[in-house]
Amino acid sequence: MSLDVALRHAFGAFRLDVAFSAPAGVTALFGRSGAGKTTIVNAVAGLLRPAEGRVVVDGATLLDTARKISTPRHHRRIGYVFQEGRLFPHLSVRQNLAFGGWFVPRGEPRPDFDHVVDLLGVEPLLDRRPGRLSGGEKQRVAIGRALLAAPRLLLMDEPLASLDEARKAEILPYLEKLRDETTVPILYVSHSIPEVARIATTVVALSNGRVERAGPAAEVLSDPSAYPFLGRDEAGAVIEARVLRHDHDGLAELAISGGRLVLPGIVAAPGAMVRVRIRARDVVLATEAPRGVSALNILPVVVAEIGPGDGPIVDLAVCCGTDRILTQVTRRSLVALDLAPGRACFAILKSVAVGQRDGAAGAGAIEPGATPPAPPALRSLA
Fold it and tell me: What is the pTM of this model?
């Protein structure tokens, strides 16, 4: 499955001019308010007719203004999940889910109802009305209803924005299962880097109606030059890790391409792959191997890139094996330590301060069909 989008449109002084392609998986549209995220998904859904545009989903052309092609919105076979579940209050969860089946074209195979129910963990909710559901439960039902319509593409416009942290933690493991266990491509709108780092396979970073960066999530989120658009406060890298073992003291050992990490709060079984998000502000560099420190994670790295700008804080990317880790240092430290591309040094990461808001289960950390664990399986280092 693939997605190709090219759009041009104007709202007063705002100009949207974007083009991107994405493979199967979750493509996250990331950017601050007003960047053009919702305009893009509305154009893809057929809720907005752009001045110029082309939208192709898995080879099916839904929009091509140059060729005067514009598939009506009700024939595009796109599932749209909004910030609020928008369930029918007078229907049970079972009936809300079944409503999606009315939109499957005649002769097309229908998604398996029981599989979708199991995928999203809503079997205990089937006889309830929406008024008796939590916010996270409502969103899971809304996603299930969209899936049961057999969509070509699933659009999610900040589906977690109205949820508190506890409800977000409840639903995120199901979004990971949706990414890993279905073939439906997902276009996901968010302004939360922890959210994007956890579930996205592709990131399209937007600013003022333009695409500033686009590519695999790990590459975009580990690019120091992307953070003028992503936001420096949330700068960080996403790396894949394999769980090696769990120790008796509650810590787990994980293998990454350039060494090993020791972390608390990992519930994934040995052998499972997880994503680890390491925030730039939680990484300290040293030009000599430190001794007598409490930090358990000290990794040999090589400076790969120094970010742009001339302010007092500098963004750096360092290579650890095949992975890139971001860090931030003062310009004074940059000069004092003689940090430059190619310089070998050590990255020091603390294990004990785990950021709950960045917690996430990693790809493959949840057994197919199993109930997502709590606490989450992947957390950022702090």
Answer: 0.78
User: Counting beta carbons within 10 angstroms of the beta carbon of residue 304, is it exposed (0 to 12), middle (13 to 18) or buried (19 or more)?
Assistant: middle
Q: Could you give the CA distance from residue 114 to residue 122 in angstroms, rounded to a whole number?
A: 10
How far apart CA 255 and CA 258 sit, in angstroms, is: 8
375 upstream amide cis, omega within 30 of 0: yes
- Smallest Cα–Cα separation from 216: which of 234, 239, 249? 239
Q: How do the residues of the chain divide into helix, strand and coil, expressed in percent and rounded to 5? A: 25, 35, 35
Pairing outcome for strands 186-190 and 26-30: parallel
Residues 6+ apart with CB under 8 A from 196: 28, 30, 188, 190, 203, 217, 221
Least-confidence region, from 22-31, 79-88, 118-127, 228-237: 228-237
Task: Please give the Cα distance from 176 to 187 (Å, whole number).
Answer: 14
What is the per-residue DSSP string for 335-379?
HHTT--TT-EEEEEE-SS--EEEEEEPPTT-S-TTPPPPSS-SEE
Give the Cα separation of 215 and 20 in Å (integer): 9
Residues 345, 287 contacting (CB under 8 angstroms): yes
CA max distance for the chain: 70
Q: In one letter, which amino acid is 57?
A: V
Residue from 220, 103, 80 nearest 158 by CA = 80
- Tokens for 94, please give them: 């079972």
At position 162, the amino acid (one-letter code) is S
* pLDDT tens, residue by residue, 251-274: 999 999 999 999 887 878 899 888
Question: pLDDT by residue (tens digit) across 36-68?
Answer: 999 999 999 999 999 999 999 988 999 999 999
Angle 352-30-243 (CA atoms, 0-180°, nearest 5)? 35
Structure tokens at 281: 């502000």
Minimal CA–CA distance to 340: which of 373, 374, 317?
Answer: 317
In sequence order, which residues have a C-beta less than 8 Å from that of residue 372 and are 6 or more positions away? 121, 173, 174, 176, 177, 361, 366
CB 168 within 8 Å of CB 110: no
CB contact at 8 A, 15 and 186: no
